């Protein structure tokens, strides 16, 4: 849930857009007001200077120089001229002339104002030049006050024009005053208009900001919703891809991601289902193989079997076939996994059925071969060693269909023999024959059956465990009991292949050890 203090992205976008547009509007309005106000004042200053210039051109300089008092006819003549000029422009507040001096103060000469007016400046009244910036500049040409200025008579804007005498000197300056109230009123009106435009702009900016925020946030919100649904497990959620910008590309990538996740989830479900089925198949296969070694006072049997995958193709079995005989079988289907396990199950079923009616070695091998030949759709083969051990005489009758030769440890001499018999694996040829052979066992002798997973295991340096190492271990440890032999053999094998660590093998591994304790063996239990 979104914390209450966290603003939504749409609100943040709207505020950013609103702030940006407001700043732009304020800057634009401020610049417009400054430029427009400056233009109004510049036009007014130009007008004032033109009026001052016209007045200066009409004044009789010699008559102005003769003025000594306000009663002089020259004073009244020039005053009438000033009043006449002021009458032609009602906006002019005052027209006057000033006598220039070298000191900080100039002195008024003639003013158009009547004597009773507060703005009237009598003849000779001093005026500080620095009081109005721009006044001193009139000595070199037309000028005006730099800004609106205020004195005891009001707020003013003034223009000045010099009267240049014949000797080139300026001794008289004409001034024109206009009340700045009109300018300020125009500027105030313009400010109100600008503020109104600014207010309308803010409303438009707010609407535009809301629209932009929603426009940009909509696809993001759709992505957030899609992500939330996907997090809740709904991988069928999709977001629209109608935009042609980066957000559209992001939506397309999001949908592709969900498609891939949906596919991978389906694959995982299928893998889980397959793992469940393989686990069931593994339990079934393990139930087909001996769970423990047959118990007998004259035979000591132990074994180890491990599949490289959930189910494997290695097979071994012990089947009593009468009071004093036991069938011992071991086989290896090419490859491993489900196909190998299925073929192994077929051979196992065949063997269990066949030994009930005819357990002779050559007959069992022939039936097994034809069965593998007809049952393998992928032309799988199976190595197979089948034997009958007579527990009364110690005679082992066997046939070998391409399986690794078992080892026979002779307790009397400490030597190791192999049980050679060369023939094709099961399934290679129709009606193949497998010659039957016999070997005599004595008390203490040990038979060792194994699959190629033991021999072909490699250490990290790429060296194979091999037959020589296997034979050496049988010779060194063959005097042990069957269970101790299997335990020590596997310990040496794991130390070689995996540095003593328990880890999965790359091939199915099977080891069966059968030790004969007596030549005469009672009935098997």
Q: Give the class-level CATH name of the largest domain.
A: Alpha Beta
Number of domains: 3
CATH architecture of the largest domain: 4-Layer Sandwich
Named CATH topology of the largest domain: Phosphatase 2c, domain 1
Q: Give the radius of gyration.
A: 60 Å
* Termini separation: 70 Å
Envelope shape: rod-shaped
Q: Which regions are unreliable across 5 or more consecutive residues at pLDDT < 50?
A: 1-5, 519-525
- Count of individual beta strands: 17
Number of helices: 10
Largest sheet: 7 strands, antiparallel
Chain-averaged pLDDT: 83
Overview of the structural elements:
With 525 residues, the protein is an alpha+beta fold. The chain has 3 domains: 177 residues, Beta-Lactamase (2-Layer Sandwich); 54 residues; 227 residues, Phosphatase 2c, domain 1. The chain has 10 helices and 17 strands. Strands 1, 2, 3, 4, 5, 6 and 7 form a 7-stranded antiparallel sheet that branches. A hairpin with a 5-residue loop joins strand 6 and strand 7. 29% of the residues are buried.
